[in-house]
Amino acid sequence: MNQKNKLIILTGPTAVGKTALSISLAKKIGGEIISADSMQVYKYLDIGSAKIKEAEMEGVPHHLIDALLPGEEFNVFCFQQMAKEAAEGYRNSAKNFADNAKLSETNAAGSETAA
């Protein structure tokens, strides 16, 4: 199965542990997090949105958090575009990582590779 097309979606009500689970899972599989929260996408709207703090991210890249200023339009079409860009960016970086890992493995085996 093609690994780069897999997507894990965590949903649930507030305060059930989605954030902690998503960070743990992302760290385990080398993934990233794309937030689907309609309020966390806005900068400065931290109170009442339970927005994750930088220290809580534990080094896991998060997307669509603090991406827009209050007053900027955000709707399902915007979300789809922004989420797609984040996912494609991750896939490209993961592919580059995999390509570099293959190159390193080849070098470690003593074969010559073209840069």
Tell me what the structure shows.
The chain has 115 residues and is mainly α. The protein has helices spanning 18-29, 76-108, and strands at residues 33-34, 62-63. Strands 1-2 form a two-stranded parallel sheet. The two termini are 29 Å apart.
Mean pLDDT: 81
For the biggest β-sheet, the strand order reads 1-2
Helical fraction: 25-40%
Shape: globular
List keywords for this structure.
disordered C terminus, 115 residues, mainly alpha, single chain, 2 helices, 39% helix, two-stranded parallel ribbon, globular
Describe the structure in brief.
This protein is 39% helix and 3% strand.
Task: Itemize the secondary structure elements and their pairings.
Layout: H1 18-29, E1 33-34, E2 62-63, H2 76-108
Parallel strand pairs: 1-2
